Amino acid sequence: MGKVIVVTSGKGGVGKTTSTAALGAALARGGQRVVVVDFDVGLRNLDLVMGAERRVAFDLTNVAQGTAKLSEALLNDERLNTLYLLPASRTRGKDALSEDGVAGVIFELRDQFDWVICDSPAGIERGAMLAMRFADEAIIVVNPEISSVRDSSRILGLLDTRPLKVEAGGRLDKHMLITRFDPVRVARREMLNVDDVREVLPIPLLGIIPESKEVLRASNLGAPITVCGRESAVSRAYVDAARRIKGDWIEMTVPSKDKSRLTRWLGGRAA
Amino acid sequence: MNRFVHQTPIGSAPIARARLQSLLEYDRSLVNHADLLSVLREEIFALIGRHAGIDANKVHFMVVRGNTASTLTVDIEVPFRVGAAPNAFALPASAGG
């Protein structure tokens, strides 16, 4: 039985889709069977970040409604054969997705995959609630920026009541993934540091992803950052986060301004 | 110029631009036909089902989008056995009840 993880944040543009693709690909590279599911009905983008937009035929809504089979909607990644994508519908409204329909799809996915990673839409409306409804664990993506931290705090509250697992009396593990972390600005006290964020969001840290130009490049090319930017600090941070999801103990390092691009150029990869 | 500063081998923006253009063209062409594929799937399944007993689990639809057209691949397993085609041609009335 696979594990269902929701990647959520409340605020838009913080890196949920990038993180979903990066973590999914990192787990798949380790041989795990992974499916990433786009819950952003009407505004899907995970297909673009994964570079699968030309192959989308059927989607989550089709499968939930029974108008297509799961195997017809699942897209196998062209680079990693244990990675799959279940795209969202671009045209139908959120109301076309029923809770029972989604429950059936998740049930089937759980059976076929080790990891079912659900990319939540921004906001706290129906799509976001459906994405967290069947989760076993949650990853809250947060930027070191006050509106993102506040919205994530709101999401934490919802994660304490909305998922089925919680309703049944279970405990839902929550992890925080800090993205777009700029060590130079943090050092200058221009940006919240990790402790500032943790003070408001007191949950275990899954990883700290540095701000990087590589992310836009990966999105332009249509490949998860852990596939096309393997040597980058961002990719390494995501790979570490993926290993922590699997339960490995990996020391948490806060990106520091010492590990600049220049030192990496010169091969000075100081531990 | 910028290439020396940014260490990006070749700019990736032209690739993004090309992907975006092809995507938008496709999206626009679907505006009036959002469910085209679902409709096709249902009708093709019904049509073949009228003549041969086919198993819904052995029907597979796939689309690959090219630059100017898409390829629709329909893979349907049609059994040979007459008995497997209950609604094909008029079977003896004794079949069933």
Keywords:
heterodimer; A: alpha/beta; Rossmann fold; 8 strands; B: alpha+beta; two-stranded antiparallel ribbon; 39% helix; disordered C terminus
For the record, the CATH class of chain A is: Alpha Beta
For the CA atoms, what is the radius of gyration of chain B?
23 Å
Please mark out the parts of chain A with pLDDT under 50 across 5 or more consecutive residues, or reply none.
none
**Main β-sheet of chain A: number of strands, strand sense, barrel status?**
8 strands, mixed
Task: Look at the structure and give the mean pLDDT of chain A.
Answer: 92
Structural overview:
The complex is a heterodimer of chains A (271) and B (97). Chain A has 271 residues and is α/β, with parallel strands linked by helices. Chain A has a single domain, classed as P-loop containing nucleotide triphosphate hydrolases (Rossmann fold), CATH 3.40.50. Chain A has 14 helices and eight strands. The longest helix of chain A is centred in the N-terminal third of the chain and has 14 residues, at 16-29. Chain A is globular. Chain B has 97 residues and is of the alpha+beta class. Chain B has one domain (2-84). Chain B has a two-stranded antiparallel ribbon with strand order 1-2. Mean pLDDT of chain B is 73; it is low at 87-97. The chains are: A alpha/beta (271), B alpha+beta (97). The interface between A and B is medium-sized, with 25 and 27 residues.
